[in-house]
Amino acid sequence: MGDDSEWLKLPVDQKCEHKLWKARLNGYEEALKIFQKIKDEKSPEWSKYLGLIKKFVTDSNAVVQLKGLEAALVYVENAHVAGKTTGEVVSGVVSKVFNQPKAKAKELGIEICLMYIEIEKGETVQEELLKGLDNKNPKIIVACIETLRKALSEFGSKIILLKPIIKVLPKLFESREKAVRDEAKLIAVEIYRWIRDALRPPLQNINSVQLKELEEEWVKLPTGAPKPTRFLRSQQELEAKLEQQQSADEDAEGGGDSGEEVQQIDAYELLEAVEILSKLPKDFYDKIEAKKWQERKEALEAVEVLVKNPKLEAGDYADLVKALKKVVGKDTNVMLVALAAKCLTGLAVGLRKKFGQYAGHVVPTILEKFKEKKPQVVQALQEAIDAIFLTTTLQNISEDVLAVMDNKNPTIKQQTSLFIARSFRHCTASTLPKSLLKPFCAALLKHINDSALEVRDAAFEALGTALKVVGEKAVNPFLADVDKLKLDKIKECSEKVELVHGKKAGAAADKKEVKTGPGRTAASGAAGDKETKDTSAPKPGPLKKAPAAKAGGPPKKGKPAAPGGTGSIGTKNKKGLDTKEIVEAELSIEVCEEKASAVLPSTCIQLLDSSNWKERLACMEEFQKAVELMDRTEMPCQALVRMLAKKPGWKETNFQVMQMKLHIVALIAQKGNFSKTSAQVVLDGLVDKIGDVKCGNNAKEAMTAIAEACMLPWTAEQVMSMAFSQKNPKNQSETLNWLSNAIKEFGFSGLNVKAFISNVKTALAATNPAVRTSAITLLGVMYLYVGPSLRMFFEDEKPALLSQIDAEFEKMQGQSPPAPTRGISKHSTSTADEGEDAEEPDEGGNDVVDFLPRAEISDKITSELVSKISDKNWKIRKEGLDEVASIINEAKFIQPNIGELPAALKGRLNDSNKILVQQTLNILQQLAVAMGPNIKQHVKNLGIPIITVLGDSKNNVRAAALATVNAWAEQTGMKEWLEGEDLSEELKKENPFLRQELLGWLAEKLPTLRSTPSDLILCVPHLYSCLEDRNGDVRKKAQDALPFFMMHLGYEKMAKATGKLKPTSKDQVLAMLEKAKANMPAKPAPAKAASKPVGGSAPAKFQPVSAPVEDSVSSSVEPKPDPKKAKTVGVSSKIKNTQGKKVPNKTGLKEDDDKSGPIFIVVPNGKEQRMKDEKGLKVLKWNFTTPRDEYIEQLKIQMSSCVAKWLQDEMFHSDFQHHNKALAVMVDHLESEKEGVIGCLDLILKWLTLRFFDTNTSVLMKALEYLKLLFTLLSDEEYHLTENEASSFIPYLILKVGEPKDVIRKDVRAILNRMCLVYPASKMFPFIMEGTKSKNAKQRAECLEELGCLVESYGMNVCQPTPGKALKEIAIHIGDRDNAVRNAALNTIVTVYNVYGDQVFKLIGNLSEKDMSMLEERIKRSAKRPSAAPIKQVEEKPQRTQNISSNANMLRKGPAEDMSSKLNQARSMSGHPEAAQTVRREFQLDLDEIENDNGTVRCEMPELVQHKLDDIFEPVLIPEPKIRAVSPHFDDMHSNTASTINFIISQVASSDINTSIQALTQLFQIESLAREASTGVLKDLMHGLITLMLDSRIEDLEEGQQVIRSVNLLVVKVLEKSDQTNILSALLVLLQDSLLATASSPKFSELVMKCLWRMVRLLPDTINSINLDRILLDIHIFMKVFPKEKLKQCKSEFPIRTLKTLLHTLCKLKGPKILDHLTMIDNKNESELEAHLCRMMKHSMDQTGSKSDKETEKGASRIDEKSSKAKVNDFLAEIFKKIGSKENTKEGLAELYEYKKKYSDADIEPFLKNSSQFFQNYVERGLRMIEMEREGKGHIPTSTGISPQMEVTCVPTPTSTVSSIGNTNGEEVGPSVYLERLKILRQRCGLDNTKQDDRPPLTSLLSKPAVPTVVSSTDMLHSKLSQLRESREQHQHSDLDSNQTHSSGTMTTSSTANIDDLKKRLERIKSSRK
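^ thats the sequence. predicted structure below, dont judge the formating
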């Protein structure tokens, strides 16, 4: 017993867990008592048992378990926390209670489950019960089914979700256990009770016997709608109310409601979707195209089987639909057409709304196929089109249907009308708005007059259905022209129609009508009256009065008449009525006289044509009095105006009489029932007088009165055509002025834009300026109504005119059209009914757009174009897209039928090439504007894919997608987007970018909507998952969007939707919902208030502009800049933005007044105070990744004191167009308000940073434009940015340097450049450096380039914090994964290298081997012009404007605007004529001196003219014999070195190789400059030039040979002109590098050595200017790297020889002193240099030492005299080898000739002996030719490369120089001879003699003993003028070579200048060519 007492002492909760069953039993009993006592459901006591309840129900002891179940039930019922235990307890009940044999346990288990459902845990319970159905124990399955059945029976189908139960039913019916099958039957019956026939499809496949049993049971069920008997806790208050109501009234509404809702369950929703696309036969698409119809049939049958599935899974069915559409449209076998139609039906039924996107493609094809007569085909097509209609909306397919209505085939017309009738049945008054009804009625009215009976009947049926759906009031205005019989027929059809939605729609419409009076009967009566009136109108006399009075008479009668006939005289609201106002037959003059005499005094009629003007005037006065007194109904208007038009009529000469006459016309029009017939009598006369100075105003007044009587659209059209058919410009301009005014008074409604535009274009082309001005004014007024789209029609006008039009439009920007004051007819007293207004604004919005002529472009969208867009090659895809863009551009406005384009563009939206994605988005944006509201029908198939692009990882692509979606939404409204599941499917995708963009977009759009489709609820679950997304931005956006969802769905729906969430999530979401509830905005007010018309009656068409001022004040906040939007006041069913739709005139005027003052107010010390606040952390520091609201608010507050209020409103407006406007204003005020701008500069810059975060490109462009102007102004004012301004602006500007658009990047770089003038570059550097850390590769690359430019411009000092740190940072990017970034980093470091030399490597520190090799390679390769940079740094440090040196030019992509003007000029010159402005003057002066000699030369050398030689002259520089230093002219021209360098460098940087070479040559012609080049620079230059000469690609160029020659000459120049120490040193280092580099070619080293030999030849002259210490140091280093042994291992022996020759020459020239020059060498023992020199000295002492200069020179340069015989043989072998090779044969011969000349005793016989006789002859002949050529002509080198023979020929000895220039008589030839020759040649070739642009004048260069090399080059150019072209054409290489040999020296060096000599030479050239 001791044990017992043990547990008795325990507390209750511990007893419940005790291992003894007795203890537990006791515990459960006590717990039960406790539970029953606790009254407070939130008591903490409950929480103690939270973890135990599961044990209560799962106890292993059956007796104890029963007690536990009882306790658990009470707990669940009363405890607040019980919900948390749902899952575990129910799962315990299922597994441990339902299998118990005791019925009591089972009952308690079921009760617990139902109790959990009652406490709102239905879904969890249902989930656990459904899991229980998979249990193996049939008892458990039966109990679970029973529980579900009871739950459904008690709580109803709204709480218990049927879909998952129905899904498992078929499986339960197949169970082996009878008990399970029976229970399944019971639940099936219960489900049927709730959803009726919706249950049949899911159960169609069960056993037929079971189905039959079910059917029997179903029949027994009562027919009444079931009602739930048990309610959730939240609904129990409702239940109480319900009971009260039921006791009060049997027919309880609550019950009724729920009944109705229950009925709405749709079988489709209960089905599982089947995926069929993958199940299509693999060869389906081939088979469907097969030639045999049987194969096509097989393919279609396969599809037919698949589409029989009642619910299909969404997917991309575009290809399948396309294939089926093709069969329907093109297949000749009608059986297959029917089959394909069935397949389409199946797809439409299975996909429902998801098929909507394909509907537009298929509808026209099916409608056109109705031409088939076969009943089975017609039936299949009808079923297909009806099924398709249900997947879309009538609005979306209306265009296609209306297009087919005009078809000539009666069957098509009939079937289309019948289809419209069937479609109307599915509509309601709200889904069939007037805007849609209008075009359909117009088309159907044509059909009721068709010749074919079946077409008429079908049209009657359709109109009857429309009448039934929307009621007579809405349809009657369109039936104004229909006669009584037909109207009756329509009404008869209407009565037979049964609507799909029951009578609701019609009833609603009827209710509306009944409001005003006797209802439908009255309405039809009125309509009948009107008909009688219309028919009787033509009859003369008083017959007309009665009906007219009835229709539009006194007010009291008018009211009842309104709903029906709407008194057609009064109401001018529909275009359909235009023709019907007052129809009047044209009367004969006799009848008119008769009628007039009845109402006018007899004297009046007699005096009308009196010849005395006073009598005529008196007559007019009487006439006027009579008209004034006449009653409206009795006034014979036509008779009266015909009297006035009677002779003299409008030719009246007296102005007073004329004025009276015109006034009377106005009176008649105002007072009488004035018809168009009457108007036509007078209008011509009025137009004729409108330009009259005295009568013009009266004419205008009369016209206005007529416009009021006959409607403006008609009057305007008449007046315009009359005015432009006559020639008087005054009349034309005044007519246009009148029209401008009339539009403002009457509104724009109904005007034919198309006709106007053609007239306006005529006016714009008029010669008279007044007409043009009036036309532009009229355009301005039209702009108010039409909006920016108006400009598109005038884009092809002349620019001057276009700018005037733009200026006019600019004036109108932001104004809203005035409310019409006329045209609201005073005789119509019927009040526009509010019911009508609700959908009317839609009409207004489209109104003008409807009139725009739309082009049909479907024929241009060819299959080729579509396949291009889908091509594998992105370039071809791009071409396709470009074509599409240009098609849309040309068409301006297009029809909605765009063929296969949507599918093609959709494919491009997920293109791998992002540029194409962006291009596609731009096209889609264009498309939206071009197609206007009709783009609606493409929302599903093209709009939704754009939303998918919002998930792109690239910021710019997302921005483009967002802009596109907005452009679409602006045209379509939001309804189309929110309908269906598409949007929720997008939100479901777990892409953070997509989610945040889409939620942001919805948050922006939802608040503007008045109502949303019910499908919005589908987005809510995904919205909740976004609230808990991992991405912070997504969470933020979801929270922002929450209140707007709630605003449309309500808190209850939103809270209910949290039911499916996990408990933790649910609590969080509910807390957020509570918070959102507090912030929930009110829905935008409906537009009804505003659309109450001013005059008591506004015709619907005028509504958009007729809002009274008072009413619209409330709805408008600010003006909308887009008049297209501003036209509608209220929010239409199109859901356009309500804010600021319509601006009341009052506020408008006031705002204009405000705008006159300054925009920036100068606040003393305002800026300083703001800085202090920021420093003291009183305000937020301007530092963020994206601007949050608090920053924007703060900026607003700071701006409020110093920015004009109206401007601030614009600046912080939600619409980007207002930002553009603000920027435009700021630009205008920039100059005039400098102080204000500077005072607010920090705020302006901060505001501009906000604009950088906008997605709209136009704002960004405008902001950058403003910034450029701003920084220019600041630098002019010498303002310096403060740190605060810089730090809050520069980082954000740098973000934009990574923009994808080139033009933006260019602008940003331009701004960065200008900023350096107002903010130190060294401080800019760290900001830009920060920019290199961006994730955006473009930004990194651009920032690195900018850093390079800064270093180049300002030297190393800008590198902050230290050059080392900065360069290390930059060098990191060499390893970047993006190619552009790597290049930029390398280029930047190369730039630094150019300024700083080798020290760069120290600063960079350690780089990876790969990066280092890339850098070294780039430094070697970069074609640097380094000499410029250091000099410039010195010269131009202070200014940024002139210091962008060559590399910057090469680095910058695109011509950077920011370059200084000088540099731009230089760049644009690069070798073109205009560059020569500075040179030209001096050059011409020189020419003038010798102009006179020209006469004698004129007629000579005719041959040369035949050749077009420009291309030979152009690229290659013509070097001139240079005789003394740079000419004086040159010095004048380049008086300052810096500008010279600038000028030359701009050309060195040219992309044209010839210009570069030319410029470099120039640089080296100016000795003072040439000497400046440092060793490093020269080394790089020589490296570059030699590499260029060896580049095999140059040979492929047309002028390759000339380029090589030019480079050759340049090399010679560099060797001669540079500082000799520097060049020698450079060559030695280069040789060392090239021998070390394994990759370097042997040719390279060879050429370097040839240069060295050349330098050795120059040593005797230059030895005194050389710093020998440095040279010997270089040689020492060389020998240290290459000791003798290593050199000997080289493949070639030349390096060692070269070195020896150099040392030998130095020893010879300096003697023993050479040993004094080893001072710079630290350790002489490291190399053999000293020993070698000592040996040399010793050797030379042994020689006699008495050689002449000449011999010395020879000795130094020829192949070493003491070289052994073997070496000589080697050399000769080399020469013969050259002769033997085709390419080098000439060079070899020349070398051999030179060799023989030097060593006359040399024996070449052995070499010739072994060769053929032909070869021996060839060699002899070649040597002879060379000898002949050279005799008497001095030394003229002939080789084209720097070949070994240059040693002798290139630099002749001083003695030979004179002879080379002297002529045969030994005289020296003056420069003018050469100049003259050149001049003649240039004239012959048609070249301008002043075109020596980039060179100093020739004369200045021709006065110093020439270096013959230069001569030879000039020769080559001049002599080969005619020869080169032909030889190029013949491609005969050997010929060319021989020509070169023969002719290379023929011209310029010739000793005589006379003409005969020239002739002989030409003959020789010719003969040599032959």
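The radius of gyration is 49 Å.
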